[in-house]
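Tip: read the tokens left to right.
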């Protein structure tokens, strides 16, 4: 059975409470993004002006990473996420963390990148971000926490967000469009092997390299080439070997997450009358994991 279908009785002598999902307020989202950009610009300005403690770029960069993480977690919190979807997201994050600990002995090979991409592809950008960020946080309880943890959370969180950009293709499920999306994930995974490495190189450059100039930055980026290459090749291997199987499994779970609410007459189909909402004048039908169709 794909998901649940729940009938709500409505008719003469019965009361029916209309179920709604809060519609995302686009203006509020745009304003919060504008505040984020303004805050990041302010941190850069204070750093360039030498205002303490923002003149210490290792600390200033950490502020910026944490600020972006808080914004993205707030985006996930603002979504209408049901308990089953939340539990599945946490489970995927735990599996990704366990995979990272398991492959820790192989330099550069990180299954977290592949799982975060796949989670974003199947469930959307917000879920992909949480899977990647929590996987870094959980696995570092075993591998060691430090000032690098927020940067790893940010890197793998953004990996999941990039997988969410391909999310519309996953609606084709097992069709040609979905298979195209899986092929694109292979290329995106290869690219993120280098992007994630460069992000961590940037943290290293801010924290330990002096002077901060283009020459030292280039040296920091080049020094991690082989680790980044192994990371990229590992992502491609995971996507090719495990991608189709895990995609089919996650599609089944996504189907189970669907809850459909249907308002029916009190006396059964074909009988009785519907009580309409005074505000809308029409009944509502809720589908998906919480969406509303009027």
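Filled-in amino acids:
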């Amino acid at each position: 059975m794909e998901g649940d279908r729940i009938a709500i009785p409505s008719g003469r002598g019965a009361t029916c409470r209309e179920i709604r999902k809060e519609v995302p307020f686009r203006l509020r989202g745009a304003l919060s993004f504008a505040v984020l950009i303004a805050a990041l610009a302010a941190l850069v300005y204070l750093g360039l002006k030498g205002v303490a403690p923002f003149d210490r770029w290792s600390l200033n960069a950490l502020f910026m990473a944490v600020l972006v993480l808080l914004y993205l977690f707030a985006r996930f919190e603002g979504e209408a996420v049901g308990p089953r979807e939340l539990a599945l997201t946490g489970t995927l994050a735990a599996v990704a963390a366990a995979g990272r600990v398991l492959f820790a002995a192989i330099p550069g090979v990180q299954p977290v990148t592949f799982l975060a991409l796949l989670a974003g592809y199947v469930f959307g950008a917000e879920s992909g971000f949480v899977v990647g960020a929590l996987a870094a946080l959980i696995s570092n309880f075993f591998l060691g926490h430090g000032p690098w943890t927020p940067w790893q959370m940010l890197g793998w969180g953004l990996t999941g967000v990039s997988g969410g950009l391909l999310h519309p293709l996953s609606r084709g499920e097992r069709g040609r469009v979905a298979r195209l999306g899986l092929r694109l994930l292979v290329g995106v995974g290869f690219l993120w092997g280098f992007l994630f490495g460069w992000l961590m190189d940037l943290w290293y450059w801010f924290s330990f390299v002096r002077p901060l100039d283009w020459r030292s930055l280039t040296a920091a980026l080049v020094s991690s080439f082989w680790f980044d290459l192994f990371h990229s090749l590992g992502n491609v291997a995971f996507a090719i070997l495990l991608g189709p199987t895990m995609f089919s499994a996650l599609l089944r779970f996504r189907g189970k997450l669907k809850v459909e609410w249907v308002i029916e007459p009190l006396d059964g189909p074909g009988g009785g009358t519907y009580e309409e909402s005074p505000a809308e004048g029409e009944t509502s039908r809720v589908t998906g994991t919480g969406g509303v169709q009027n």
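The radius of gyration is 23 Å. The first helix runs from residue 26 to 49.
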